[in-house]
Amino acid sequence: MPPPTDLIRQTPLFRGLDDSALRSVIAEARGSRLPAGNILFHQNDALARLWVVTAGRVQLFQLTPEGHQVILHIAGPGQEVGLLPALTDAPSPVSARAVEDSSLLAWRAEDFRALMRGHPQLGFNAIAILGEHIRLYQDRIRELTTERVERRLARTLLRLAKQLGKRTPEGVLIDLPLSRQNLAEMSGTTLYTASRILRGWEDAGIVSSGRERVVIRSPHKLVTIAEDLQR
Amino acid sequence: MPPPTDLIRQTPLFRGLDDSALRSVIAEARGSRLPAGNILFHQNDALARLWVVTAGRVQLFQLTPEGHQVILHIAGPGQEVGLLPALTDAPSPVSARAVEDSSLLAWRAEDFRALMRGHPQLGFNAIAILGEHIRLYQDRIRELTTERVERRLARTLLRLAKQLGKRTPEGVLIDLPLSRQNLAEMSGTTLYTASRILRGWEDAGIVSSGRERVVIRSPHKLVTIAEDLQR
DNA sequence: GCGGCTCTTTGCGCTGGCGCAAAGACGCGG
DNA sequence: CCGCGTCTTTGCGCCAGCGCAAAGAGCCGC
Fold it and tell me: Mind listing the pLDDT tens digit for each residue in B84-104?
């Protein structure tokens, strides 16, 4: 199976590269597969590679000593994984796990850095990507310190819909196996509270959810909750 | 007053530059002063400059529509402010305010980017700095979702001590005007809870605090609380 | 050295959200 | 198509932390 050139061309990390640059990038890539549930790396691992997801979903998370999992990001096709450790030689602050059967392209960190020296655009792209993450994290910190669970859960769903949403006749499907537990780990709450809130929304016709599945029937009402405009 | 060359040399953003590069960097800098309490910029401003703090403290924060303030970072001498907007042309996600009388050096964003093209080391430094922020934000998100207020407050103080701590006969002084309100805005709690917890630590001899002032008498005990090892 | 502003403390009542326990629903694999 | 493992729901009791209100303390400027 050849590397999916079109996908690479649209990957934010490789945006703006000319065809010859793209060819040298692709020449260095190695493909691999990661079945659902498998770990790509653990937090504190020293990584020698940078990955780009080509299919599936890879979850970035941290595990506390007490065993609580916190989901920080979900990378879908076209998104990179392990960028920060590849660029800074520091161990990874997060762990990565496939939540679906996934395919990845990998570059050795040193090869990627060599590419960066030859193509400064890569450096600007990397900065833009890191910057985007910073903004998202700052938003989450603000939400966690100032907002109630219901609002945060609404925001989590809206973020997921924006990133991984799929239009269907019944509404916007979050295209990802997504348990109440996962939702809690993304919103800063517990399994129980997430379940109760989702039940309420179900009754209000805002979402329609099942086992590891959420469909947003009324994105508008969800925005209303996220922005606290209901009353 | 000439630009403080030694400080610039030690600034993470300018690390590893040779003398001639450093000279061209300094040649482009403009100094300015910002009295305590003054705003440098607001969130959503399009910034045309990048700053480095040379004296004082500059607080980066967000304000919610409800009027709650969340403090995301405090930049002291040698730390940059406005790096992300200067590099990405996006509006600033945060506001910045001097919490002490401060002095800054400023570069026009376009001048800085020109310097970056000539000195790739600047790009790597920028990436390392953004990466450091990402790590800190990820840690805070994990703490906010899994830890109790007391632990988070302990961590906040330890972080401040590491960054701005000053050894004194009575202990490590957080060298910054720091109200209970500020502490709450950094830890994700309220003025009242922060006050009560600090009172408890005072009685236990762990800290010694006054009006906008905190001294850590026993960093070790504070670590014990932050790591939840007490019992 | 006085007045006033701001910061801090603390009593009190309240509630959002936690988390156990147990029952119910779903769907995969054999 | 049956059984089992996993995910979800919900009753229930509890408490950490919130936030008002009011008093107290500290500091600055005149």
Answer: 999 999 999 999 999 999 999
